[in-house]
Amino acid sequence: MSLTTGDELVSVVYVSKARADVGDDTLRDILTESRENNAQSGVTGVLLYRDGQFVQVLEGPRDSVQSLVATITADPRHGDIRIVLDEPIDERQFGDWTMEFRPVATPQTALPEGFRDTFDDLDAAESPDRAARAVHDIGRWVKARTLRG
Q1: For the whole prediction, is pTM greater than 0.85?
Q2: Domain boundaries of the chain, sorted by first residue
């Protein structure tokens, strides 16, 4: 079966800044809405948040993901939204999660080159290859923390 353009499976990653202080209640509201809506539209992914910055990976049918990105862009809680990756994928990296959430701690010490505990560089990723590598790292990072409990 061939997919039509709107059915094509894609991964979209965006970064945005919170327009106001985002506390636990606001994050809980965002996650509740996301999980309900994403389950209905076939979208999966992960949301990272730290110090007023969101990084989100969305996976699903192109039409559903594009519609969701338009909704997020209109959401007054988000500002300075920038798409850093938009590409077709063969399979989902976050297929088990309608929207996984991980708060990202502020780094305490510098890590050796090649290691990461933040995704600050994703906002500055100028090349799609660099952004794609960061998304792969996000997947490993989230799954490792999930296994730790």
Answers
A1: no
A2: 5-148
Dist CA 49 CA 21 (whole Å): 12
> pLDDT tens digits, residue range 86-122?
999 999 988 877 766 655 555 555 544 444 455 655 6
**Domain boundaries 5-148, corresponding CATH code:** 3.30.70.100
What sign results for the dihedral spanned by CA atoms 78, 137, 11, 102? negative
For every residue of 86-137, DSSP letters joined together read: EEE-SS-SSTT-SSEEEE-PPPSSPPPTT--S--HHHHT--SHHHHHHHHHH
Q: What is the DSSP letter of 20?
A: S
Residue type, 135: V
Closest Cα partner for 104 from 148, 57, 49? Answer: 49
| CA–CA separation, 59 and 98 (whole Å) | 9
Extract the tokens encoding 141.
Answer: 């990072």
Q: Give the amino acid at 48.
A: L
pLDDT digits (tens, 9 = 90+) for 2-58: 445 668 999 998 988 888 777 778 888 888 888 888 889 999 988 888 788 888 889
